[in-house]
Amino acid sequence: MTTDAVTEVEADPRARVHAVRHRYAHRGGGATVQDLAYTVYLTVVLGAVYVAPVVHLVRTTRALLSLESAAAATPVACLVAATAVWGAQLAGRFWGPLVLKPFLLHVFMNTDLPPASYLGAIVRRRLVYAGLGTLLVVGTAAFLATDLFDHPGSGLAPQAVAVTVGIGAVAPVAWLWGQVRTVRENALLAAAVAAAATAVALLGRSDLPAGGGLRLLTGVLAVGAALLGRSAFRSVPTVDLARLARESARAAEAQTFAFTGTLHHALDLYRPEPRGLTTALTRPDGRLRGHLAQGAVRALRTRGRATAAAVFLPAGGALLTLGVAEPDAGWATPAWVAGAAGVYWGSGWVGETWRGLRDELTRAPLFGGRWGGTPARTLAWPVVAVTVTVGLASGATALTRWPLQDGGPAGVTLLVTGSVALVLGARFLREMKTNLPIGLLLPIVTSLGDLSGVRIFVWQFDGLFVVLFGVLVMNELPTAPGAALTALGIAACCAWAGLRRTGRALRPLLTRL
Amino acid sequence: MSAVPVIAAEGATVVLDGTTLLAPTTFAVMPGEFRCLTGSNGSGKTTLLRAFLGSRRPTAGAVLLRGEAVDMARPRHRRLVASLVEPVPVARDMTLREQVTLVAASWHGNTTTTAVRAEEIIGRLGLTALGERFPSQLSSGQLQLFHLALTLVRPADVVLLDEPERHLDADRVDLVADLLAERAGQGTSFLVATHEAAVVAACDGVVELG
Predict the structure, then answer these.
(1) pLDDT tens digits for B37-81?
(2) Torsion over CA: A89, A91, A97, A101 (sign)
(3) CATH of the domain at B29
(4) A280-292 pLDDT, tens per residue?
(5) Which of A2, A130, A232, A259 has the greatest number of beta carbons closer than 10 A?
(6) Is residue A3 within 8 angstroms of chain B, CB to CB?
(7) Which stretch of DSSP H or E encloses residue B161?
(8) Domain tally for chain B?
(9) DSSP H or E segment with residue A70
(10) What ipTM was assigned to the predicted interfaces of this complex?
(11) CA A52 to chain centre
């Protein structure tokens, strides 16, 4: 049948879109009223058992962040707003509001329907949900972590609510913008957001009358939401459908991994494909380059990850050093924790060889039973890159704080070294993760109910948990050598647990390495 | 018959990183013509089909759809071309009949035509008895027929197929070849990359690549 045979009545776009969505929604796999009711029931029970006591506890203790005036609240609100926009843009690049089920998108893409006719309604609905979600999260965070709502007569509460609504309006459209606009346009928007946030924060602290800063921020958010939304929605009709199909296919696969408890496999799908430097692994005479050079070349083949590592490793090292060098400062522990987390993330992005290590230890060997040199081949680059980068950043930071408090250079060196060892151990543990062990699904019966879900959650983010736990333990210990030894002990435990994840007996495995 | 070819390649060439994926190729497919693309592996059959779908841009020459450069961002071009070149995503939680009907509904809405078209193509491809099965319950050959049903249930002026005989036994290959020839007789043009003699025997002409 040729397209001439399709009559005008049949070809009404709205009727066609409605027909497809109606049939797809009634395919039998969708949520029933009972499913939704059960979800609501679970949410209420979990909220009453777990969330309500926490809310009560937080509300009856001193606020984490004291914002008693508009001048103090404006910079914080600007930072929150800018972070929300940047986060939404980033989320849009990976999982935007236009992502559909691959089959449904394929059906629509293979028609002559304009993209706006089948994407428009879905986008509007998702943006409303995202806006409500953002409103809820930001509002709850402000209510729990600040004292903005403790003084009803101060007039700050209504302004804080207005800013929260503004963030709830601008973040969803930034999410859409992140997906439909190019990387360059997103970078420009991120820079503009930074500039606007800085300007409003500075104005809010200086010239404006009382409460002017928050009112100005609310206005900027409202105007920004209108402009961004108009611009982003105009891009929907011209969206690159082929790219959207790839994103949707990847999202569907990632969702399956995430729902089956292997979030790390889902994240692997978002690793960029290596590009360029195709002949750089070998020297001109045909011999392979050394382990360090090989690791560096493989890292540079994924430039986005390498760039992120180049930012996170020195920044993390600097924060880490600040945290350990000035233990008496109020921000010392948060800086230490944030720095260690930054180094942890950077250590994963700095090299592709971590994955080679896992594959070599967990898969059947291609070339006989003896591997030989696996650790040197796979670990040399990331370990050297992390320690050297963090060491340089740490040294530079220490010089700016000279003379150092308490234990002096020796104490700081021990703590930084211990933290880096801890991070590398945690990264090794994370990278050796394979499939979800069935044993984790067994119930943990307590008076608070079955906590096996908590254990699975911890398993999903085990490396990060080790880093956070290790740093907090180190922070509580009275001496630097004791803290460093503890960190080394935790790192050794991580290495042992990581090797256990290969499923091989430890002694023969070590012999073969 | 219109004088304007439905699709045409004019010296279409694809070179990637110094490797020639498609040597300069020129031909035209007229309305209602069933043309086969043959040639050894790597001769550029799939590359040429991708060029007509806009997913591989020619580095020299041109590929034309009704005399215009191919641009699948244009609704008119998407309207004209149906294809089974890249893997088709299917819904694992919908039966074969539901999915074929859904594709028909994307063109005909909630009209009687939708059900008629879906049942017609399901019947012609011998899938009636499998209509209530899910994709995971189909064999490789049945899946290939299912993918053909998803492609052929929609109206199109030209259909691009990459090895439609994949996983099919001789009887099913004949069935598919007869169906394509019948559709060509009704005015739809076909460009089919194939290694199968039965499909080549059913077509109106062959473009040999490589």
Answers:
(1) 999 999 999 999 999 999 899 999 999 999 999 998 888 899 999
(2) positive
(3) 3.40.50.300
(4) 888 888 888 888 8
(5) A232
(6) yes
(7) strand B158-162
(8) 1
(9) helix A70-94
(10) 0.92
(11) 27
